[in-house]
Amino acid sequence: MARSKKKPKKSTQVASSSNAVSQQDTAASSRLKRSKSAPPATPSTPANATPNRPRKPHRFRPGTVALREIRHYQKTVHFLIHPLPFARLVREIAAQFSDSVTRWTAEALVALQEAAEDHIVHLLEDTNLCAIHAKRVTIMPKDMQLARRLRGSTLDRPW
């Protein structure tokens, strides 16, 4: 059977003074119990919002976060690629070419990383210009291939 709330009975007799005092005590104690168990009903959400559904997280318009990230990375002076993974990659590639080169100075790794990041950034700039020239805002592999071809890069020609 479903639970239902019991309604208080209405009394029609006149309350005596001792009965009235006991009723006031019970009313005060019930008010205390109610105030401890549940906070007062104050709307903390707008009237049109449903209480069951959580609020949607704030979303920026498309491109806003990208522009903010561009400004952030243009201000920074540190490397974009973490130095330790880059050093591992350099050592791995060097081991493929020659077993005699096993030790690298920190300055050599820093110089190589600066040159590599500079090359990548300029290549991506040229790639972006190729995409803009094609009346697009999204870069594609064909833009990078065209940028490398216009630069005169001779390594790994895909055509």
From TrEMBL:
Residues 1-10 have a biased composition (Basic residues). PANTHER family: HISTONE H3. Belongs to the histone H3 family. Gene3D superfamilies: Histone, subunit A (1.10.20.10). InterPro entries: H2A/H2B/H3, Histone-fold, Histone_H3/CENP-A. Residues 62-150 form the Core Histone H2A/H2B/H3 domain. Signal peptide: none annotated. Residues 1-60 are annotated as: Disordered. One of its GO terms (molecular function) is protein heterodimerization activity. This is Core Histone H2A/H2B/H3 domain-containing protein. Residues 11-30 have a biased composition (Low complexity). GO terms for cellular component: nucleosome. It comes from Adiantum capillus-veneris (Maidenhair fern). It comes from the Eukaryota. SMART domains: H3.
